[in-house]
Amino acid sequence: MPPFLPQETIRRKRDGAALDKAEIDAFVDGLAKGGIGDDQVAAFAMAVFFRGMNAREAADLTAAMTRSGATIDWRALDLPGPALDKHSTGGVGDNVSLILAPLVAACGGYVPMIAGRGLGHTGGTVDKLESVPGYRTDPDLQTFARVVREAGCAIVGQSAELAPADRRLYAIRDVTATVESIPLITASILSKKLAAGLDALVMDVKTGNGAFMPTLEQSRALAQSLVSTGEAAGLPTRALITDMDEPLAPCAGNAIEILHAIDFLTGRRSDARVRDVTFALASEMLLMGRRAQSLDEAISKLDAALASGAAAERFARMVAALGGPRDILEARAAALPAAAVVRDVRAPREGYVSRIDVRALGLVVIELGGGRRKAGDAIDPAVGLSDLAGKGKIGKDAVVARVHARDQSSAQIAAAQVLRAYDIADEPPAPRAPVVERSEI
Ligand code: URA
């Protein structure tokens, strides 16, 4: 074999060649160990973005990224139940993981969730959890395993130990406009999930203007790639396609979405769209993990876990075990950072919210300081948007959104951008269910 030169692999992909396994392995090795520069990683990601990868290359990339670090064997760690997980392809106001992990734990599943940071215009669960004072998203593997056993769930970031190649590639994709690629998304998600030693995975594949794959056709292709690559690697995988033509929760931001999740778990608030998507994904997990025999049984278990407070209690246990406040459920508002300026954005006229530019709302959060402009940027956990209006009827001067900002001038800019993201029309929009379809592959 000729010596491996990263620029030659980049050139071959740039020119549309299919990469062989050996050069994918060598590239990923350099990615994980640092032998390849950030410039070369960015160029590689852009070449894959434009030229794509066939299914074999995507599977090889996934396998190499999985092997780039340690993998967990839950059987050897005596987990008393199935290791189940879900992952989203990314959205705005998508705080499902924070609600779903403790819910599934309260129903007898174990959720060792390795989540991501913000990516492109979307928020990341790890960034959200880091707004909880003291919460450690980077525990060592022993602590991670202990918390999963004791709380039933642990949501952490990619450590240097698990899928380090994705950790680096992900951070570079975030700031180089190379996120929206089916093979890169597939390898990114599945490498983390395969390293986590799961028994089953459910994928939440977002579709709509706030998703990385805006059309249903592209979302189906992504779902197909995730399910077939996951299954081929020995991980039972299902996918639901869910709507991202409006934010899922009525808020976007880090501490803001944590607060919403706590309020949802403790019954202080309920949102039909969040509930529908969370329950649909969680019930697939309970079925795959044999914690329920039927969809009806799964839904009634989830209902009971929410109503009894058992799910909220699992969340609190996870937060405390990972270094956060012991009283997060009660002290939530005082414990979480809050923005200095809160400004209402009001509807200029009566009508129907007919279209929401969800991607633009995600970018507003980044501009407010809630996401990164370049890799490694610090983020402001307190800023973001709350009280976001959904599609449907709206009165003149009704609140379209509440902007949470560091200062008056960024609040003013954000308020104008939010208004531009909302189309108010005379006719109601065509309805679309939050769970668009279950992918049958
Ligand atoms: N989530 C991930 O972990 N990776 C992606 O590429 C997209 C969503």
Overall description:
It is a single chain. The chain is of the alpha/beta class and 441 residues long. It folds into 3 domains: 6-52, Transferase, Pyrimidine Nucleoside Phosphorylase, Chain C (Transferase, Pyrimidine Nucleoside Phosphorylase, Chain A, domain 3); 84-333, Nucleoside phosphorylase/phosphoribosyltransferase catalytic domain (Pyrimidine Nucleoside Phosphorylase, Chain A, domain 2); 340-425, Aldehyde Oxidoreductase, domain 3. Helix content is 46%, strand content 14%. The chain contains 17 helices and 13 strands. It has helices at 6-14, 21-33, 38-51, 55-66, 96-106, 125-129, 141-151, 164-174, 182-195, 216-232, 254-265, 272-288, 295-307, 310-321, 332-335, 358-370, 408-421, and strands at 84-88, 111-114, 153-156, 200-207, 237-243, 252-253, 341-346, 351-356, 384-386, 392-394, 399-405, 422-425, 435-438. A 4-stranded mixed β-sheet has the order 1-4-5-13, sandwiched between helices. Strands 6-9-11-7 form a 4-stranded antiparallel β-sheet. The protein is globular and about 70 Å long. The protein starts with 5 loop residues before the first helix and ends with a strand. The structure holds uracil. Uracil (URA) is lined by residues 89-90, 116, 119, 170, 184-185, 188-189.
